[in-house]
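hey all, quick one before standup. I had two proteins in the batch that finished overnight and I want to keep them in one place so we stop losing track of which output belongs to which input. First protein below, input sequence then structure tokens straight from the run.
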Amino acid sequence: LPWRTELLPEQFEEMFLAQSGMTEMVFTHSDDLSIFPTLAGLGYRSVWRGDEVFGPRGGRSEDVRAALASFSMGRAADVAESERWLRGESWAAEHGVAIDRLIAAAPPHPADLRDTIYGRERLPALLHHHNYHKLHFVEMINPFLDAELVRFWSTLPRRCRVDKTLFRESYYSRIGDHVQVPIATRDNGADWSRALRESPALEFWVRGKLSNLPEPLDRAFFLEKLDAVLQGAPESSIPGKLHVPAIRLIARAVVLGHWLGGWAGG
């Protein structure tokens, strides 16, 4: 089923509560609340969920920094403009200490480090609060927790396991090109940059969230990123620094700001 980006403002609060708030999926998967009841109504009973860049003979990481960056757990100090995300000086160093603890507990090879930390820190969450709002409707199958599915996955050509290739080819073969959906080649399914540019209502909602970000988040920085996305500005990179796309920074700021606001109010 196509992602419906226009559902975000309507369903954000309910999705936030279902996901406990501390995940970008609250923003990018807000339409799950409609998709899974619809799938159940169409007769589907199980859904296979997995990240295509992981698993045997998948994409490889050549160094520790690239391994961490592949699933968004790099050190904040290594990321371009991270000094502008929050006001204050000590948080980046404390974040680095936490990352060092994860590295120390994982195998030394970068690719093994990537898969081990991902499997230990993120996949288990898919069995709990990340998925429970779907389990009322369909069974969620997490392939990298199932040995038989991992063996099957390892036989697929590498091109099918990166850049959402398998998903996109399956979608268009079953649904057809006549249903025009902006499917991203990386990250979560919908093309949120395009959606923001095409939907004034969605832009208004996101701008309102960013304009009211609580401390220590820097409102001006994230609003600047929103304007860059709306203008279609090219992503700029800084030599020696990791780059996080503007749309991902926006999504995380919205979710984190909502969580901080609720925590401060509670």
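OK second protein, same deal, sequence then tokens:
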Amino acid sequence: MRHYPHSRAARLAVYGLLLSQEKRDGGTQDGTPDWPSCDRIGLKLLKLQLGVDLSDPHSTRRGQYKVPAGIEIARIKALAGPLEMPRGYSEQLASYCDEYRNTDRLPRTDYAKLTAKPSDTFRMFPAKCRRALGYASPDAKLVFWALWDQYEDKTARANGILVASTDWLSQKTRVFNRNRISSAVLELEVRGLVRVKRGRGGNGVSYVNNFLLTAFPDCLGNPPTADYERQGLPQSKSVANDPDTIALEEREISARFNSRIEAQMAIVRYTRNVRPKRDSTT
């Protein structure tokens, strides 16, 4: 496996070599590289491998969020429709999660509350939960099954305090790409299948995210939140008798539904990554 330099000094050194080589090969008179004459595919690979924005010598951050253009944001908002941000933990459950990090003890909740049957048709999951999960992407399904596997291992007593880091999800799902894992978690949030209590990183005390499966009661015995019901599920209104026609219409309906989910994911990602700029006069 080839390793690429990720430190700031190493990336700037590589970028300086690129600039000097481009200048020798024939850049512009002011010394800046003539990017249209370069190999665009090679530049794109270098940008992904080194984490450097080659169009801006001052940009040295890895994985920097790309802000969409204003027209693109307007188009995404029109496609997303009415949007409610993914809901977080209740105050009671959030405070217990903070306590659980120190004690590591599960709450003594009546097991009958944790295994109470939902109001709709029940097999292993509520019917609407199965339908909502059926429209999800393969990566989102794998992440959901990994969380559900941990939920079953702890005999339904840890819903809301399920601990899952990105590395753990990668090992369970065999998806060794952090961007795909984070996108799958965001998709589950937008679809209302999970709630996430964000952890924190840094050099001090750090901890991973906690997850709540909304189709089941939480560890404190509170009823399921069933956030997937507020998203709505596509309903086929076909009156055709031909099975092929019905299947085609259902595929079109599900495609429009998933397009709306993807647009909502883009809006949530934009809201979380872009902070409002402070007034320069203040």
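Flagging for whoever picks this up: The radius of gyration is 24 Å. Residues 99 and 105 are 9 Å apart (CA to CA).
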